[in-house]
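Sample entry as discussed:
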Amino acid sequence: MSGLEYMQAMRDGHLPPPPIATFMGFRLTEAEDGHAVFEGASSHEHTNPMGTTHGGWYGTLLDSALGCAVMTKLPKGKAYTTLEYKVNLVRAIPTGILAHAVGTAQHVGRSTGVATAELRGADDGRLYATASTTCIVMALPD
């Protein structure tokens, strides 16, 4: 399958979600060419010692949107992995607030992919975080 076909099969329930999505409380809702959206809400299990949503929850959700946006641009036989990503937390997201992480591929070539993402409230569009990534593109083993 191409990356887009793979992501759409996961979105449609023909392939299982990765275990991290279940553990972190999010799911893939959109997968189009150069575009991936995950939605989720943090819960008590995702809080830090101060009782607020841990930055790792933001990062995990955004990293998924970023990488999967790149994945949608890959042909059959190619895969990616994250080389680096950066997250800017704009404001605290309360637990239980449904949010969308929207990833957009800016460039995907033979060896690298670059993407950006935003994490926004599903109901009010409020911005909670932004992110960017560089991914390495590689051939899958035969």
Notes: The beta strands are 26-32, 35-40, 78-89, 99-108, 112-121, 127-139. The domain at 3-139 is CATH 3.10.129.10 (Thiol Ester Dehydrase; Chain A).
